[in-house]
Amino acid sequence: MAAFHKLVLSLGFLSMFHAAYSAAQHRSYLRLNELDFTGLPSDIFLQALLSLLIIMYGVLNVAGNFKEIKASADLDSKSWETFRNIPSFYTFSHRGKSFAA
Q: Per the UniProt record, which residue ranges are transmembrane (predicted)?
């Protein structure tokens, strides 16, 4: 089943690249004919939107199952006195040592 989802993801990316190429071609056509750009044609827009949805489906299924985030697991081993104690913020080289002499 994973191979199927990877194939769907690959087809989604190919379709998205094709939509981008078609959009670039449409813009160059408008420049060559000196026409104003009012927006993309609906078929290119729908292809890009459908490709995005297919890519999202493929990524969600290729990534695997989500794991639960347990925020309380880290807090169980700490007491309230050490909860805000962050050793990485300790600084011993500061201007206060000049007042100690």
A: 46-63
